Amino acid sequence: MSRSNSVPSTPFEAHITDLGHDGRGVARVDGKAVFVSGALLGEHVLARLRKRHRHFDEAEVVELITRSPHRVEPRCRHFSQCSGCSLQHLDAASQIAAKQRVLAENFERIGKVTPQAWLEPLTAEPWGYRRKGRLSVRNVTKKGRVLVGFREEQNPRFVTEIQQCEVMHPALGPKVGLLADLLNGMDAVNDIPQIEFAAGDDLMALVFRHMQPLSERDLAALAAFGQQHALAIYLQPGGTSSVHPLWPENPRLAFRIGSGDARFEDVELEFQPLDFVQVNAGMNQLMMARALELLDPQPTDRVLDLFCGLGNFTLPIARRVAEVAGVEGEHGLVERAAQNAARNGIANARFHVANLFEDQRAADWARAPWDKLLLDPPRAGADQVLAYLPHKQTSRIVYVSCHPASLARDAGILVNQHGFRLASAGVMDMFPHTSHVESIALFERHP
């Protein structure tokens, strides 16, 4: 290793002056930024360098010299090793404040815009909230056992061996170790690289990806595990289209939005275990109420919902407006969205399949007049859509974002190129104890 890339093992003192967007503390040592895992804003730490880069270095805490008053004891004993969470050592109020700060910095730095008002952050139950995710599986010969968990924080090539997960849905979180025991006794111990999980309101499903056909003995073991723990078991021998249930024969995954909430009439959405759904059911409920409040749907409105997925926003909106159209790139999601509309007795919602990262301005739905627009894009954002939408008759846009940088960029486009103002914005804690920033913004056209 060259001298410029060598990593000294001698610990050094560092004062943490900021919290990075990934949850690591930020210090400056000899004028160079150092990202310190396990450190919080305001702390003075003894750190050890892990990696050198040209413009920054990476380090980890060896000892806390001065502790932040906002530091708390992580609930999970795997916290420092597992990549599933990065902020369990920071109190809840400080976590959400840090995320709001990240959003504000992105608006200022990238979009060159500032909201006229900041929305109160949305928070829900911070434990046992994760109803969807992927567990990695690895049979480690040297340890003589199977490991099931999320990737390690410091070395993503390795799997963290966990017995239970504090943020995972309670139907599965306490049973992760039992999954390892199950796999350890199977013939296909080396042929199952991952397990995906997805929970509806009444049922948790596990999808076992397997690289070789499973033996009758393994199939019986998986079915018995599902029966014992009230879990639906699916198999995935190939691509996503190969997923099929093992037990029970016809499992039903579904969740309700609005049940018991007087602010909007409820709908029920059925889904398949690999479909995209919002990971946090409690936050999805709160997010829906806020989105409807900001969109302010009226009985005569025509609303366009882009990146609509299963109809998570489309169907509640449809209850309040004259017409709504949902557009999504994945054919299976659009098909299930239409089925969900019919199942809920909603006749004023139409759905279209379209790749929204390609120019769709010639499509009928793109040329139609829409009073209001809802956007819920993936991390890449919606800048390609904003090249031809919204039209001049669109007066209000609600933008739900899972990446503050793309939202900030698109906010600049809407304000500077389309004549909107950024009326309000705020964060929603969709992923507590992680650095993930989910947010929502309202854009209104200048009169």
Automatic annotation (TrEMBL):
[4Fe-4S] cluster binds at residues 76, 82, 85, 165. The keyword Cytoplasm does not apply. It comes from Rhodanobacter soli. This is 23S rRNA (uracil(1939)-C(5))-methyltransferase RlmD. The active site is at residue 402. Keywords: 4Fe-4S, Iron, Iron-sulfur, Metal-binding, Methyltransferase, rRNA processing, S-adenosyl-L-methionine, Transferase. Belongs to the class I-like SAM-binding methyltransferase superfamily. RNA M5U methyltransferase family. RlmD subfamily. One of its GO terms (molecular function) is methyltransferase activity. GO terms for biological process: methylation. It is an enzyme of class 2 (transferase). Catalyzes the formation of 5-methyl-uridine at position 1939 (m5U1939) in 23S rRNA. It comes from the Bacteria. It catalyses: uridine(1939) in 23S rRNA + S-adenosyl-L-methionine = 5-methyluridine(1939) in 23S rRNA + S-adenosyl-L-homocysteine + H(+). PANTHER family: 23S RRNA (URACIL(1939)-C(5))-METHYLTRANSFERASE RLMD, RNA M5U METHYLTRANSFERASE. S-adenosyl-L-methionine binds at residues 278, 307, 312, 328, 355, 376.
